[in-house]
Amino acid sequence: MPFQWMPSRRKFLETAATLSSLSSLSAQTPSYSGQVPRRPLGKTGAQVSILGVGGYHLGSAETLDEAKRIVAMALDAGINFFDCAWDYHKGRSEEWLGAALAGKRDQAFLMTKVCTHGRDKNVAMRMLEESLRRLRTDHLDLWQIHEVIYDNDPDLIFTPNGAAEALVQAKKEGKVRFVGFTGHKDPAIHLKMLSHDFAFDTVQMPLNCMDASFRSFEEQVLPEVNRRGMAALGMKSMGGSGEMVRAGAVTAAEALSYAMSLPVAVTISGMESVGVLNQNLETARGFKPLPATAMAQLRERCRLDAADGRWELFKTTKKYDGDEGRLQHGFPDATELPA
């Protein structure tokens, strides 16, 4: 007899409410036959695909031509959300994404991130101009503060003349439509950012079937983001580099399905090849959220593997902490860290 796990009444009701919210989001947009569905981006009025292309992995493609193929095929499949950051591959990710979107910019919802890591508004605005040039556009659809992962980051961001003021200025000047922040380390840091009551449009966080049981963004941050009417952006659905899939804890389809079934606008996934894109499209095309019972069973199945964070290395190690941020905080870069 297959294992059947029955969730507690409280957890069942919470999950049912989540799925009900997700179904409501999906109902507001047309369902494209054979294409990736779209959802509202919070209260912004924008519509984004439930699957987004991650910029770091795009810059890891074997060649620029391969990156262009990934972007073209993604657009054809209905994906319109493209993620990037100023420091990914020292600018190559933005340059390649800009080249891939040449002549197609109007089909894309384009996001990149600013990497001040405590530096002032002037540095942020300079980075914005560099990002616009690399991406070959005169505006961003979304500009986010990158990698808010250190305890003092919120204080630095909201200090006078800090990065938060750059978000306001860029929006006022029409260089960005919407603004947000990202981070992958600790839910408490996200909540500290939200405590400033800044008018963020989006909040990006790691969301996967193991996160639910360990330092959980799903439990602690996602409800608050939704309560405020901001758009939640999910990332690291498979552990950052597919760790939990390679370990055999879950399949790629299970991991992606769980993440996209949460009340998020988009799940951003790294796709460095056409093969990985096609694998993800098999799950995302015509996607319907998992039932509450299936979500609960998957969480329970992963609970033991999740307990020490070994497949969420972005929370427990420095593996996913960028060198740019470490430098500005006075820490050694990755090459100087213990093996």
What does this structure look like?
- The structure is a single chain.
- By secondary structure, this protein is of the alpha/beta class.
- It is 42% helix and 14% strand.
- The strands form 2 sheets. It has an 8-stranded parallel β-barrel with strand order 3-4-5-6-7-8-9-10, surrounded by 4 helices. Strands 1-2 form a two-stranded antiparallel ribbon.
- Strand 4, helix 4 and strand 5 form a beta-alpha-beta unit.
- Helix 12 (252-261) crosses helix 13.
- The chain is globular, with a radius of gyration of 19 Å.
According to CATH, what is the class? Alpha Beta
Q: What is the residue-mean pLDDT, rounded to a whole number? A: 91
Shape: globular
Known CATH architecture: Alpha-Beta Barrel
Supply Rg. 19 Å
* End-to-end C-alpha gap: 44 Å
Strand content: 5-15%
Number of helices: 16
- Report low-confidence residues grouped into runs of 5 or more: 1-32
Which strand order spans the largest sheet, edge to edge or round the barrel?
3-4-5-6-7-8-9-10
Order of helices and strands: HEEEHHEHEHEHHEHEHHEHHEHHHH
What fold name stands as the CATH topology?
Answer: TIM Barrel
Report the major sheet.
Answer: 8 strands, parallel, barrel
How many strand segments? 10
- Could you state the CATH homologous superfamily? NADP-dependent oxidoreductase domain
Count of spatially separate domains: 1
